[in-house]
Write a structure and sequence with these properties.
Elements (H helix, E strand, L loop, with lengths): L3 E10 L2 E11 L4 E5 L6 H9 L6 E6 L2 E2 L10 E4 L11 H11 L4 H14 L15 H13 L5 E5 L7 H18 L2 E6 L2 H7 L2 E6 L2 E6 L1 H6 L4 H6 L6 E8 L3 E4 L3 E3 L8 H6 L2 E4 L4 E4 L6 E10 L3 E7 L7 E6 L10 E6 L4 E4 L5 E2 L5
Parallel strand pairs: 3-8, 3-9, 6-7, 7-8
Antiparallel strand pairs: 1-2, 1-4, 4-5, 9-10, 11-12, 11-14, 12-13, 14-20, 15-19, 16-17, 16-19, 17-18, 20-21
Helix pairs in contact: 2-3, 2-4
């Protein structure tokens, strides 16, 4: 068992309230990712769970046991930090077994656990090396191995891959996913990288200003965000937000000249009248012949990614460029061209002036 329960958890630093009161249930064996911008409180929550910060209010349960008054070593959770925190004068084997030795575990058992963890993490051939002889990815695997040997109820990861280069990050993400599939131990993972969140998490908790904006599966959050904050945080390139003006006789107008009928987007009139902006992801656009009705823009920049092209269109009356991502074989445009685009049916979201998503009413 490795469930984690937070009930009205709060944290204040002096007069500054950084966590106003979070409620969260982490299921036994799941991989839950905390994601959000820097300073949103996600790492603070992790440190509260680990016992590295005292609570200002609320309760924390690990394995259904209240741990408010327990120290970090007694909570049954093992934390892996952004910095590897390895002892430079100890070998890989000594670093991985240090916590067990300090806890009084017998030498034979320490050796068995370290060897088993090293085998899982492909560190067996490196056990006699020192940290200075390892790459960044190898050092992070040693830090993870040090946590594994404790056999915790839950692993807590605080941005463990942020010090690695791009290719190593991809490799380590794969290894972490395999490790979770192998161990089936609860993992809570903090990152500001939405790609890590989307690829690793069974569920994602999107944090903003110490609160959880939305909690759900990666695809649910991507396709059905509750608000603009979540919609804009997940996805690269970012979702297009298109303010519009509603006229009951003409329909709604995007930018200066693009007047559009509501029924062509799979939206209801009630959605449009309650909202103030449309949001469409870059990959959800079709390019139309210029004589057809749609949103017209001038190509001001093209990013060629090989398999895809990202076009930035300047639309009259819109402050920000419209971003369109197309398969390379469909991107027949050049810098300066005027093109007409239209969102794919039922892939347009409506948000009100406060950023809340307006959902079509069921019949």
């Amino acid at each position: 068992m490795g469930s984690i329960s937070l009930k009205n958890v709060a944290k204040r630093f002096g007069d500054v309230e950084v966590i106003p009161g979070v409620n969260l249930e982490v299921k036994d064996g799941e991989f839950l990712v905390f994601v959000g911008p820097s300073g949103c409180g996600k790492s603070t929550i992790l440190r509260l769970i680990a016992g590295l910060e005292p609570l200002s209010g609320g309760e924390i349960f690990i394995d259904e046991k209240k741990v408010n008054d327990l120290g970090p070593a007694d909570r049954g959770a093992a934390m892996v930090f952004q910095s590897y925190a390895l002892y430079p004068h100890m070998t890989v084997e000594e670093n991985m077994g240090f916590g067990l030795r300090m806890g009084g575990t017998k030498k034979t058992e320490v050796r068995e656990r370290v060897r088993a963890a090293a085998d899982k993490l492909k560190l067996t051939e490196l056990l006699n090396r020192f940290p200075k002889q390892l790459s960044g990815g190898q050092r992070q695997r040693v830090a993870i191995g040090r946590a594994i040997v404790r056999r915790p109820a839950a692993f807590l990861f605080d941005e463990p891959l942020s010090n690695l280069d791009a290719s190593l990050r991809v490799q380590m993400r794969i290894e972490l996913a395999k490790l979770h599939a192998d161990l089936r131990t609860t993992m809570v993972y903090v990152t500001h990288d939405q790609t890590e969140a989307m690829t690793l998490g069974d569920r994602i908790a999107v944090f903003n200003a110490g609160r959880i904006e939305q909690l759900g599966t990666p695809m649910a959050l991507y396709h059905q965000p509750d608000n603009l904050f979540v919609a804009q945080f997940l996805g690269s390139p970012k979702i297009n937000v298109l303010p519009y003006v509603w006229d009951s006789t003409k329909g709604f107008t995007i930018g200066r000249d693009n007047t559009i009928a509501t029924d062509t987007l799979g939206l209801s009139a009630s959605q449009i009248t309650k909202g103030s902006s449309l949001a469409v992801r870059p990959e959800a656009w079709h390019v139309l012949p210029n004589e057809q009705a749609g949103i017209k823009g001038q190509v001001e920049f093209l990013e060629n990614l090989g398999d895809a092209v990202i076009a930035y269109l300047q639309v009259a009356g819109l402050q920000n460029p419209l971003v369109v991502k197309l398969p390379a074989e469909r991107a027949h445009m050049q810098h300066g061209d005027t093109v007409t685009v239209w969102p794919a049916a039922n892939q347009t979201m409506v948000f009100d002036a406060q950023g809340k998503r307006i959902v079509k009413e069921s019949k």
